[in-house]
Amino acid sequence: MIVSAAIIPHGTMVLDPNRANLPDGAAALNTACQAAARLVSESKPTTIVLITPHSLSLTHSTAVPLGPEAKGNAEWNGNWNEFEAHVAISPLSPNFVEFMRERGHPVEGLSAFSRMPCPLRWAECVPIHFLAKEPALATVPFLIISPSRGKSVSTNLEFGASLFAFLEAQDERFSVVVSGDLSHGHATTVNDPLYLPDPRWNMPVCDTIAKEFDSTIAEWVTSGNRNLLIEKSAGIVKEAMSCGFDGFLWLQGGIDSLKEKWTFRGQVLENLSPSYFGMMVATFS
């Protein structure tokens, strides 16, 4: 059964609130991430489902590491590599792959170097850092899922419904955690290259759309109005450039599928843009 869900950003600036010259808002996001991890812990999951947009990925299929473990660090721009993560991969991972394939979803299992630990980077290690600091979550195994890009809204909603169907059929307690950031088009006064996009990315600034997207996603969480996600946000996500959007759709698809059984209530703990990208911390219970 599903006992909780959360959205935790993966900007590495949220890892250390005492770091010198942090952009405004990063420390507040750190506090919010800790609070989200506590709420996940209080739901007493026996497995955490981590949806990550920047893990090992496949061009046309969703990727699922098959274990037995995963490890790595949150290195970004040559920093934060001291923030390490080492987790067990859920033994349910192969079952999940087969379940989803039987339902017609293109999903593939990944094995790393003759069953050596699957590599992790910032998009996994940042949320895992906060989750693993909770004593009750320190040894909880993970089902890690990495979407392939470019799927339609309806396809992602269907995937989320199938994901939740699998979880509800297991004799486990699951917390579903989406690692994802909001719009990457915010204007910023930050001038430290460590917190700015690589110039080679030619990333456009779309501040008006960025603010609209981020506020709409926050309203979706608090109101439960699915149209804010699947219509309004979906209409501007290409310009807004949000890496978390597929995961948000999976959550919505799962919530839709359980509406006769569960009522999910969302709360936003923080929604800020310390630099060029927005980060929101939210929980569902």
From TrEMBL:
InterPro entries: Xdiol_dOase_suB (IPR004183). SUPFAM superfamilies: LigB-like. It comes from the Eukaryota. Residues 5-257 form the Extradiol ring-cleavage dioxygenase class III enzyme subunit B domain. One of its GO terms (molecular function) is ferrous iron binding. Coiled coil: none annotated. Pfam families: LigB. This is Extradiol ring-cleavage dioxygenase class III enzyme subunit B domain-containing protein. It comes from Rhizoclosmatium globosum.
